[in-house]
Pyruvate, phosphate dikinase (Ruminococcus albus 8), 875 residues
Amino acid sequence: MATKYCYLFSEGNANMRELLGGKGANLAEMTNIGLPVPQGFTITTEACTQYYEDGGISEEIQKEINEYIVKMEGITGKKFGDKENPLLVSVRSGARASMPGMMDTILNLGLNETVVNTIAEKSNNPRWAWDCYRRFIQMYSDVVMEVGKKYFEELIDKMKEEKGVTQDVELTAEDLKVLAGQFKAEYKAKIGVDFPDDPKEQLMGAIKAVFRSWDNPRANVYRRDNDIPFSWGTAVNVQSMAFGNMGDDCGTGVAFTRDPATGEKKLMGEFLTNAQGEDVVAGVRTPMPIQQMAETFPEAFAQFKEVCQTLENHYHDMQDMEFTVENKKLYMLQTRNGKRTAQAALKIACDLVDEGMKTEQEAVAMIDPRNLDTLLHPQFDAKALKAAEPVGKGLGASPGAACGKIVFTADDAVEWAEKGEKVVLVRLETSPEDITGMKAAQGILTVRGGMTSHAAVVARGMGECCVSGCGDIKMDEANKKFELGGKTFVEGDYISIDGTTGNIYDGIIPTVDAQIAGEFGRIMAWADKYRTLKVRTNADTPADAKKARELGAEGIGLCRTEHMFFEADRIAAFREMICADTVEEREAALAKIEPMQQADFEALYEALEGCPVTIRFLDPPLHEFVPTEEADIKALADAQGKSVEDIKALIAGLHEFNPMMGHRGCRLAVTYPEIAKMQTAAVIKAAINVQKKHADWNVKPEIMIPLVGDVKELKFVKKVVVETADAVIAEAGSDLKYEVGTMIEIPRAALTADEIAANADFFCFGTNDLTQMTYGFSRDDAGKFLGAYYDKKIFENDPFAKLDQVGVGKLMEMAIKLGKPVNPNLHCGICGEHGGDPTSVEFCHKIGLDYVSCSPFRVPIARLAAAQAAIKENK
Ligand code: ADP
Ligand code: MG
Ligand code: MG
């Protein structure tokens, strides 16, 4: 059977949103439950997909559309293009997920000079007729022919000036008629042909334009930000018009059944008399609060309140509605589950459970995990933000709001912060050396780097605001200044950055502390009740670990030990280790570090109170640790009894062409087993001490070997670990148990996971490296071409932010399937950045991971996403 591309509203229902789009499905549903909806039909999302395949609307689909126009004529008793009783329609976009304001709508389609003259006369309301016509020409020109709104707005302004009026409604029928003429002339001047008179031609043009608007730049950006695939397409709704612009007993309004900002249960909305379409929200005139309708439109308002109740009872959720009153009669034009702030989302979900409208599971399922982010970080004062104009935009790499004086080096950040200044650290890019400075700053702004650049990852880990990759900045680090948005910023200037949107503002925008309402706890408790996937955190310090525990982490999935080496009191010893010529010298340097590492680990075990802690052994290439400043090089040379030249030569010798694929990970432990020995001793001694102090805890170290590609590497390092650990345990007379596992972050490890599983207690998928190595491009350089990839629809998302389930995900699944039969006790987790991304978490649940691990501030997001995955699976 041929595909059906059109559905009357009476043929659809709310469950058909994939095919009919949200707007179409809900218009159908409202029709089914007997609400007053102007009738029409929906052209499916499949027709949109087909449009993109065919490069136009096919004959077949056009034919079906024309058939449905005939059906519509039958239902309404009006006729398209008819002089006496013309059918006028709106043509409205409507995707599966609502994308407010992203695509286009055309109203009053079907008008031409002949029709408008007849209805003007017949209705005895020429003002209405000409108002419809001028609006139609305006919208059609803008949406279909892309002439640009502003030309028409200028003509309206000119007309108002000539007539000495300020409001559109004050223009007379005659004025509007003149305007319509001017609009058509404008159209002809811009397009070169006459404005189309044939309603069928108008209709096809409008439908095409709606399909086309699915691919406009606004919509593309919105989709990427909201995980909406291009392949979904948009539906098109053709609906007969209800007229809110016929006079003073008409009007149009928008309303929410609950307050979308706070969640409070009260009708919120606005209404504008004698108006149409977007007039209410466009600020043409100041609308009245919806409650005032009680006086001016008592019957329609009473009916509307009933409709609100009906819709809430029906959808079991807060509704966002559009309606029109035509000659005192109410028409419903749209309903949808309303968008809301994170805070409102939590309150509404809890209230709906208390009202018996939703189960706990449904309440958990209705919260967008990504929204929780905003509850966990300080925010800009909403009013001040609205009034401010950004000077630039980067990537919203780590959410939150930061405002402070600009500094250009990590050292300055520390120094200024110690003086009590709030600073924003602005750098070309950050390196591990900058960590203390990053911590001291309110926020970080970088010129280079993507969502998983050093700055982004570290900032998210610290819960600090970060905007990365603002390529528009013309940076002059040497002279401590940069240019952006036509302005030169120097050290000490105030700047404000928004880590959620990536917006950058000149000057001070005040911030307010994040507020976590009581409902937050209730929702999270329900989430924990229904999820099966555990949530751990990536934390390197006791402070981070504590924060993560507060936010519900059930363990540490990744402690990166290298970060511990950058502290001022140990970097010197570590550098000595790097510069040592013999094993003995290296061991002597490591012996200085061991007690410090042990103390770090003890603090971590204390913070985790017996929950599991996975400690990853040294991972980055050694060159990241060597000094770059002359003074530091000199100090190192002196400490080593070497010349500055010798040290410089040594540093030069560490240079690698491709450090991410160089001498790092377990390769370090293979070449320098004494590093692994030291780290093992520190881990085991720390665990023994903490276990002694807390008999009721179960301290069981998990030692993780990074970057294994061949089981022989793992075997070699594991032997070193086991020998050292067993010796320490025996010496202490302890019965401590420990595990040795590996990261799976090289494709070869996933491919040979059965061999590896025979020698590992656990797998942890390091999906940052695994993505990098599977795709074969660097996470720090991907920013250079991702933009082009988005434009050409090769990628829809950054694979470093959203797990590539097809490729990288297949490797993960394969590794689990190969590994578990060999070692039934094998536990598996993920500790890449994806561990805190909701759709990636869902995938991790599906493939049977035991836990995800993410930065502390993402823990609640992961808990919620894990619960949603479990709930979805059980449905
Ligand atoms: P969006 O998705 O951007 O809200 P809509 O398709 O909902 O766009 O339409 C834009 C405006 O036009 C809304 O105010 C809507 O209520 C109004 N509108 C759409 N169709 C009709 C119609 N058939 N009769 C009257 N007003 C309409
Ligand atoms: Mg709408
Ligand atoms: Mg790695």
The pocket of magnesium ion (ligand 2) is lined by residues 322, 334 (CB under 6 Å). Residues 378-512 form a domain with the Glucose Oxidase; domain 1 fold (CATH 3.50.30.10). The longest strand covers residues 329-337. Residues 583-608 form the longest helix (26 residues).
